[in-house]
């Protein structure tokens, strides 16, 4: 098991109420899983993703990644987990506009400080080839399309060979053609390379590319369905969304 969340909670408080963004969620993720987290706006899916990726500290419960229990007070251990175990693809790409595509890609490697120039070059060339962005390396984000930006964001998330890649509404800012290409890309990463992926999405088509879909409502898991032989996975997703 690559990730385990046991009864994790994340609440937000204001003067009038308590918002239970993540309310006692249990989830187990095996190596090579491809999981969609679905729910309406406000259901808690983005907050859950950020909690699982250690970006937001949980209020209670237990989070274990690659056999290590996450301790938010141990800053050094937390940073090591983020650098080596976690890759994150944002909806709005989060590319630095003053850096080239290649410079955006290698930023996590530079921060880690443990990769020599030759290894860095090998990683960039190999990953850029796999993602079809080898012709974009010297361009700046402002010079490329939305779909190309998302591929670059994917490359940055993968450059450190993380244990788990999180994708938060990765097709939300893409047109239908770019969205389809990106979904085919991450499907291949999971199916051919065994990359573990957890993706928050409201898109039924995006969810249909995964192996398992977890449905959230008011910060709780209300249902889970898995791809099975002899059943239409997409139809099951549609039906679950319709009745919830």
Instruction: Give the helix/strand class.
Output: alpha/beta
Q: What is the alpha-carbon Rg in Å?
A: 18 Å
- State the helical fraction: 25-40%
- The structural domain count equals 2
Main β sheet profile: 6 strands, mixed
**Per DSSP, what share of the residues sits in E-state strands of 2 or more residues?**
25-35%
Number of strands: 10
Outline the low-pLDDT stretches. Answer: none
Salient structural properties:
244 residues; alpha/beta; Rossmann fold; 2 domains; six-stranded mixed sheet; globular; ATP-binding; transport
Notes on the protein architecture:
- Helix 5 runs parallel beside helix 6.
- The strands form two sheets. Strands 6-7-8-3-9-10 form a six-stranded mixed β-sheet, with helices on both faces. A four-stranded antiparallel β-sheet has the order 2-1-4-5, with helices on one face.
- The two termini are 29 Å apart.
- The chain has 244 residues and is of the alpha/beta class.
- It has helices at 45-52, 75-84, 101-112, 117-131, 146-158, 176-193, 204-207, 233-242, and strands at 3-13, 18-29, 34-38, 60-65, 68-69, 86-89, 164-168, 196-200, 212-217, 220-226.
- The chain is built from eight helices and ten strands.
- It has two domains: 3-85 and 164-242, P-loop containing nucleotide triphosphate hydrolases (Rossmann fold, 3-Layer(aba) Sandwich), CATH 3.40.50; 95-161, no CATH class.
């Amino acid at each position: 098991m690559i990730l385990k969340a046991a009864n994790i909670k994340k609440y937000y408080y204001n003067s009038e109420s308590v918002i239970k963004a993540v309310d006692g969620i249990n989830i187990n993720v095996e190596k090579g899983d491809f999981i969609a987290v679905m729910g309406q706006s406000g259901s808690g899916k983005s907050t859950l993703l950020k909690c699982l990726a250690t970006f937001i500290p949980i209020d209670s419960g237990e989070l274990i990644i690659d056999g290590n229990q996450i301790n938010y007070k141990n800053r050094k251990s937390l940073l090591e987990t983020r650098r080596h175990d976690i890759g994150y693809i944002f909806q709005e790409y989060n590319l630095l506009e003053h850096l080239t595509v290649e410079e955006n890609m290698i930023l996590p490697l530079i921060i880690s400080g443990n990769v020599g120039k030759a290894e860095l070059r090998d990683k960039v060339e190999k990953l850029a080839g796999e993602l079809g962005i080898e012709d974009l390396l010297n361009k700046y984000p402002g010079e490329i399309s939305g779909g190309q930006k998302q591929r670059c964001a994917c490359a940055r998330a993968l450059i450190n060979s993380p244990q788990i890649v999180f994708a938060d509404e990765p097709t939300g800012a893409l047109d239908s053609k770019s969205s389809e290409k990106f979904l085919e890309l991450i499907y291949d990463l999971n199916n051919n390379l065994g990359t573990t992926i957890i993706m928050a999405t409201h898109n039924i088509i995006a969810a249909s590319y995964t192996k398992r879909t977890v449905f959230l409502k008011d910060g709780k898991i209300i249902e889970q369905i898995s791809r099975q032989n002899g059943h239409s996975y997409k139809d099951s997703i549609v039906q679950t969304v319709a009745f919830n």
